[in-house]
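Field reference: sequence -> structure
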Amino acid sequence: MTAREALHRIVDELPEGDLPAVQRVLEALQATADPVLRTLLSAPADDEPDDDDFDQGLSEARRQARAGQQMSNAEAKRELGLD
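Structure field:
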């Protein structure tokens, strides 16, 4: 008897009330069979600071925008040599 056949036999013999739990376990095993998904699920939490203004650049840009000192797209392209 193969492992698959043995599993089918075990599932067939389980009480109806246990089937939802078994289904959740098998679905979890199926999901983690994908190596990419398994890696994503087991990746450590992001420990970088959640701070989009670590160098005060964002605060300065907002101050300049409030003061009407923003640069147009055309000016930015010229300054970066993209025009």
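Note: The radius of gyration is 28 Å.
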